[in-house]
Amino acid sequence: MDALPDEVLSHVFSRITSTADRNSLALSCKRCHHVERLQRWSLRLGCGLHPVDEALVRLCKRFSNLVSVEISYLGWMSNQGRQLDDQGLALLSENCRLLTTLKLSYCCFITDTGLGNLGRSSNLEVLTLNFIPRISGIGMLSLVTCCSKIKELELDRCMHVDRVEWLEHLGAEGRLENLFIRNCRGVGELDLAGLDWGWSSLRRLVFEVDGSNYRFLKEFGNAGVCGIDVNSESLQLLVLTNCVVTPRRGLSSVLARCSSALVDVELNMCLGLRDEQLIALAETCSQLKSLTLRLSSLFEGSTRITDASFCALATHCVFLEKACIGFSSGEFHFVTVAGLALVIQGCCFLKELVLENVGCFNDEGMEAVCSSGSLETLELVVCGQVGDKGISGLACSKLRKLRLCRCSGITGTGFNSLAGRSPKLNVLEVENCPRVVIDSLEGVASTLRYKQS
């Protein structure tokens, strides 16, 4: 060990991914301790950080090359000592000059003052704030004004963050590439217009709002009246949850302006989604590789999706590799098994299919699965129309993983015909299917997971 140059020893440490192994090796001798100290780029801290200010300063001085810090107080109780507060963020900014990535979770004592102190971290590029209840839009504005290099921002359950001045500043800077906003009640669909020119540089957008009935009624009265006009041609990932997307209202223009750069789309319980929007999306985004579509039957009158949308997907999105389709209840009257079969058979690169609460999917749809030349993973959740005939037909399919959850139409008889006849099926998961007993699954797959509540 003594004969090894520092460069070689540093390379050894860089290949060790386990934190426990790195700590053990660092304690073996002073030289290893010194090298490991310089090789530590990231740090994850939690409730054991006590006393918080002193411990944080010591850690920052020991690991002088830190670029990523994560602090989480999940499960914290008052008898575990004081949490990180505004003063702690000031110390972090002063003693960790190379910091580029920071994630704060469940820090209940950080206020707008703390965000202002964090503004001293001029190299900050990635910031995640998860359940920081005492910050507001004023603190966010002071932060983004000082930290001009931010490329990725994630806000989750920051209930008092409102106003749009901080979004306007990020848009004017034009550096923001990834924006994730989840369950921040003060930020609505129309507020995203504040990004303005910043939309042209945005690559990944995740926007999720409160899905309660109260929220729907309130937002449909606002975002349902008017919409925003944005340029979303650079988006590669788009995730919208509980958003208003009625044509010419809410975030409909985000869908309308997407280009062939888009490869991953998730539309979860969006209000007002129509056939013409999905058809236009399929025609424009021909390189789409992943699609998640969850529809709410509660607002079925305003959400009009039919087999025509799935026909467009099968025709234009031939490179689709993963499709997840789900309904909030088993009945969605405008979608039939024929439309789903078009996607399964038309998308020749489709490898993974997930169907949740799709009441129309039956043994006829399973025939399409069996005839697919690319499908490797199939998950059926609450698909009660699938029976033993559909399961037994999987013997000639190319499936490697099959997961069934709460499928009441399937019995052990369907699996009896698969035993020894499905060599490619590696993983079989059966969960809460009341008519399937574990004895009937023997020999069907090399790995079996069975659960019955």
From TrEMBL:
One Gene Ontology cellular component annotation held by this UniProt entry: SCF ubiquitin ligase complex
All copies of domain COI1 F-box, residue ranges: 2-40
Protein name: COI1 F-box domain-containing protein
Top-level lineage group: Eukaryota
GO biological process per UniProt: SCF-dependent proteasomal ubiquitin-dependent protein catabolic process
SMART domains noted in UniProt: LRR_CC (SM00367)
Species of provenance: Selaginella moellendorffii (Spikemoss)
Lineage of the species this protein comes from: Eukaryota, Viridiplantae, Streptophyta, Embryophyta, Tracheophyta
Gene3D superfamilies associated with the record: 1.20.1280.50, Ribonuclease Inhibitor (3.80.10.10)
Pfam families: F-box_5, LRR_6
